[in-house]
Amino acid sequence: MHGKFIWYELMTTDTKAAEAFYKSVVGWSARDAGMPGMDYTLFSKGEHQVAGLMTMPDGALEMKVPPAWLGYVAVDDVDATADKLAAAGGTVHRPPDDIPGVGRFAIVTDPHGAAFALFKGDGEPPPAMDQMAAGNVGWHELMAGDLDTAFDFYSKLFGWTKDQAMDMGEMGVYQIFAFNSQPIGGMMTKPKEIPAPYWLYYFNVEALDAAIDRAKSGGAKIIQEPMEVPGGAWIVQATDPQGAIFALVAPKR
């Protein structure tokens, strides 16, 4: 499991509005997690839990941290991996801590500032969804501070390997990376107009245009128009009504 994305979490300013939005756009169901002392919503597709939803922590807006999706990567040992990350130039923003009955986690950033989380669950993991199943996260994309150093950092931390590399002309190289020989995402040096590096998550939907219509009617703003990608899938990038960046991917328009 070490190096596999296993959970996704939206921290936002209006959880009720966000819940209604993603239920409509992605087709998730939602329920309260029943965690003592905090409101935490679980998004599911069928029997599979996919993501969580919570209100942004106190002080985040004052620090100009916008609503955002956070990806959790499974590791064999949270403390050891956090130490290794820090030694490689990353930053541990929330030191390893336990979620009773769930697992241990840490909130971190890579050397260029892209945020993600480390996680080791208690007990056996639930059965995995197919990567491209509707409602799952089909692709993980890093707008990196620098592709070469970022890939070196993540490959040493998680064992990710290089798959295909696509020359994007003036935009540089788009490097697909794999976990256990399965392509799970891509990374590239971010364009200059993007102020900071970040991870972007692509939610699988059955047909893109219908999902875009649902997103727009729910208050989303399209930031990159629909485009076809190698392999024949279609993608779109957008911000939700609270301002969190997300993306959709579908096998057809």
Which key features would you list for this structure?
Glyoxylase, eight-stranded mixed β-sheet, VOC_core, 2 domains, single chain, Glyas_Bleomycin-R_OHBP_Dase, Glyas_Fos-R_dOase_dom, 2,3-Dihydroxybiphenyl 1,2-Dioxygenase, domain 1, 17% helix, alpha+beta, 253 residues
What does this entry look like structurally?
With 253 residues, the chain is of the alpha+beta class. The chain has two domains: 5-121, 2,3-Dihydroxybiphenyl 1,2-Dioxygenase, domain 1 (Roll); 137-250, 2,3-Dihydroxybiphenyl 1,2-Dioxygenase, domain 1 (Roll). Helices cover 17% and strands 44% of the residues. The chain is built from four helices and 16 strands. The strands form two sheets. An eight-stranded mixed β-sheet has the order 2-3-4-1-5-8-7-6, covered by helices on one side. The protein has an eight-stranded mixed β-sheet with strand order 10-11-12-9-13-16-15-14. α1 packs antiparallel against α4. The chain is globular. It starts with a strand and ends with a strand. The model has no long low-confidence stretch (mean pLDDT 94). InterPro entries: Anthracycline_SecMetBiosynth, Glyas_Bleomycin-R_OHBP_Dase, Glyas_Fos-R_dOase_dom, VOC_core. It holds the Pfam family Glyoxalase. Residues 4-121, 136-251 form the VOC domain. This is Glyoxylase.
